[in-house]
Specification:
Elements (H helix, E strand, L loop, with lengths): L2 H6 L2 E7 L6 H10 L8 H8 L9 H5 L10 H13 L7 E8 L1 H5 L6 H19 L3 E8 L5 H14 L5 E7 L11 H9 L4 E5 L6 H8 L3 E6 L7 H10 L2 E4 L1 H7 L10 H6 L3 E4 L4 H4 L3 H11 L4 H14 L4 H19 L1
Parallel strand pairs: 1-2, 2-3, 3-4, 4-5, 5-6, 6-7, 7-8
Helix pairs in contact: 5-7, 16-17
Bound molecules: adenine and zinc ion.
Enzyme class: hydrolase
GO molecular function: deaminase activity; hydrolase activity, acting on carbon-nitrogen (but not peptide) bonds, in cyclic amidines; metal ion binding
Keywords: Hydrolase, Metal-binding, Zinc
């Protein structure tokens, strides 16, 4: 299949971290302005942001790329967030996306107030989304390694009281699943459920299928981030099909983190054929030095997917999105019109 066609296809993406999709030129500007210890040559600087090309797959090294000491002021937060949302679509033709952000990433180093930081984040993201007319909603991420759950419960209650979260359509759990298993966050996700937010949980990425069971049964996950290990547990496969749990898969990320040995044998195609609701996503394009189109190319060139497979991945994403049913129907109709215009 022609790369140009893959690039032009409209795409629904449910799993991309803004902290892994920052605009490199803006980070370079901020790093130089704040006299941070980074190369003063842009090309060398950009290499430091990325998972090293010559590295073996390595989850801890991948996560170490989420550096959070850029910001000397909330103006710096605004600049990075605004420019990264403006440049979100890197010739990928995103038709609808749910972009996740971790408010604590922006606040933790300088000890900014989380409520004030969140307000600045949302102002920047919303202005950029409006300016570029993107169809994008937000997911809030809680990082497993930053704070214990009691602190998250306290701060989330403050967010609910003081911040307008209208376009935040769901909550995510991310970070180091090796050292911080999902059962550490059951109270937090019970609270999230009581507020009526759906959630997506990173699980079974580099650990076992057991974390996927916990994410569904104890954390009320409607979607699983990655979850490649589902392929190893036939009982779980049956269970996720019955419950309609969707999987946000990211083949290139999964290779770099070591979640899966290569993109050729990645389970996304087999799961799709078995009727599991899988979706195709980029995860962290700046860290990976990729775009979402590269994940489409991997699915076609290395796994042998056809246009019908790609269409199903996208309609699965519409169904699994955290939009209302009415919004999903509207999105589905608009998406299909655009898809048909592109392929015929
Ligand atoms: N945060 C950003 N990318 C991630 C990944 N692949 N796994 C867990 N947390 C992440
Ligand atoms: Zn992720």
């Amino acid at each position: 299949m022609d790369k140009h066609l893959l690039q032009k296809l409209p795409k629904i993406e449910l799993h991309r971290h803004i902290e892994g999709a920052f605009h490199p030129e803006t980070l370079f500007h901020i790093a130089m302005k704040n006299q941070l210890d980074f190369p003063s040559n842009f090309h060398e600087f950009k290499n430091t942001l990325q998972f090293p090309k010559d590295s073996k797959p390595d989850f801890a090294l991948f996560l170490s790329k989420f550096y959070n000491k850029w910001y000397n002021s909330l103006d710096d937060v605004y600049t990075v967030v605004y420019n990264s949302f403006v440049h979100l679509d890197n010739n990928e033709n995103l038709f609808y996306s749910e972009i996740r952000f971790n408010p604590f990433h922006f606040a933790i180093h300088q000890g900014f107030d989380p409520v004030e930081t969140l307000k600045v984040f949302l102002m920047a993201a919303r202005s950029a989304i409006r300016a570029t007319k993107q169809n994008t909603k937000l997911l809030m991420t809680i990082n497993r390694g930053f704070y214990p759950e009691d602190k998250y419960i306290e701060v989330f209650q403050q967010f609910m009281k003081h911040v307008d979260l209208l376009d935040v359509v769901g909550i995510d759990l991310a970070g180091d699943e090796v050292n911080f298993p999902p059962e550490h966050f059951t109270k937090f996700f019970n609270l999230i459920q009581s507020y009526g937010y759906p959630c997506t949980i990173h699980a079974g990425e580099v650990t076992s299928a057991g974390q996927i069971w916990t994410a569904i049964d104890q954390l009320h996950a409607k979607r699983i981030g990655h979850g490649v290990k589902v392929i190893e547990d036939s009982q779980l496969l049956h269970y996720v099909k019955e419950k309609g749990i969707a999987f946000e898969m990211c083949p290139i990320s999964n290779y770099q983190t070591g979640a899966y040995i290569d993109t050729k044998t990645h389970p996304i195609k087999s799961l799709l054929e078995q009727g599991v609701k899988v979706t195709l996503n980029s995860d962290d394009p700046t860290v990976q030095n990729t775009t979402l189109v590269d994940d489409y190319i991997a699915c076609v060139d290395q796994m042998g997917m056809n246009l019908e497979n790609l269409h199903t991945l996208n309609t699965n994403a519409i169904n699994a999105s955290f939009l209302t049913n009415k919004e999903k129907t509207q999105l589905y109709n608009q998406f299909n019109m655009q898809w048909n215009k592109t392929i015929y």
